[in-house]
Amino acid sequence: MNSKRTILPGGTLGILGGGQLGRMMALSARTLGYQVQALDPDPACSARFVVDQCYTADFSDVGDATRLARACDVVTLEIEKIPMATLRAVAQHAPLRPGPGVLDVVQNRGRQRAWLAKHGFPQGPWKQADLQESLATAATELGGRCFVKACEGGYDGRGQYQVKSAAEAPDAWRELGQRPVVVEAALDLEAELSVLVARSPNGEVAVYPPAYNHHEERILDWSLLPGQVPPQVSTQATELARAMATALEVEGLLVVEMFLLKDGRLLVNELAPRPHNSFHATEVACLTSQFEQAVRAVCNLPLGSVEVVRHAAIVNLLGDLWLNEGGPRFESVLAMPGVRLHLYGKREARKGRKMGHLSAVGTTPEEALARIKAARQALGA
Fold this sequence. Notes:
Layout: E1 12-16, H1 20-31, E2 35-40, E3 53-56, H2 62-70, E4 74-77, H3 84-91, H4 100-106, H5 109-118, E5 126-129, H6 132-141, E6 146-150, E7 160-163, H7 169-175, E8 181-185, E9 189-199, E10 205-207, E11 211-216, E12 219-225, H8 231-248, E13 252-261, E14 266-272, H9 282-285, H10 290-298, E15 311-318, H11 320-323, H12 330-334, E16 339-343, E17 354-362, H13 365-379
Parallel strand pairs: 1-2, 1-4, 2-3
Antiparallel strand pairs: 5-8, 6-7, 6-8, 9-10, 9-11, 9-13, 11-12, 12-15, 13-14, 15-17, 16-17
Helix pairs in contact: 1-10, 2-3
């Protein structure tokens, strides 16, 4: 198998995962002329109705994952929580981009932190704890106020527990399932940023400018692209992200979440080798969206321009809005200039579930952000 082979339009792209990221990647792939197949445990997953073939199977189902790989010219993913046995089986039958080596690093927070330390990338004080007693010791050594995160699993703020002192270690240990955790010292934050890097098998790299992100209850609430940060911070962030993607030898996308501290330091928070919520604004802000760029990268096509042609912001729409009396007022936002509605085709609304997002553009960052907040209010959120 030629691991550097270019997959031209007309070929078949496989996606492990059929959530909203897989759906939007599939739509971009179809625009470029690719056929698309996906695998997801949910029979009503977001991508099902926009792909040519969708396998309903657990991510641990090596048999169906192998069937997918055999039918595809290249396989990628929209979620990193795929068992290594499945990833290795897929890689035996089709190029898997990003590959198992990348996923082995990022799937486990302890390994991810250790990899960052080994390669000298800046991060906050942390310790791994495999027992309740060592969790308490770690919290004490890190100053008491810490974030405790399960080494494996967790998404959109789940799998995390904040403690104010070592005395709360038993609560965190119990809440997170009595399994290995990473204990991270709480930091004095100025801002949360993310940087998206695309890297193709032939080594071509393209880096988007940092996005400025605002979270509520550890779920991304809104994001602004490009983020309004000092030029030196933007340069440092993009150089860090490029270096990490190169060191990991990523084929596809890598998003690096970062913390900008009040003292000016820039630290790495987390890595994600896939499209990312904080770069949905690329669909309206940039010449090449993150989803088209993902397809270009994994197919080994020339990467698209990452030029930002206008300021843009996005805000997430959670299932809570659908549970309100009367539901979302779609007609209100569709009448607003510069605002677009993006829904993910999910049939069941639940509290905290991402159902879609709004995007807005503006001649200035302030205008884009004001429009997106006004649009969300008009929607009924």
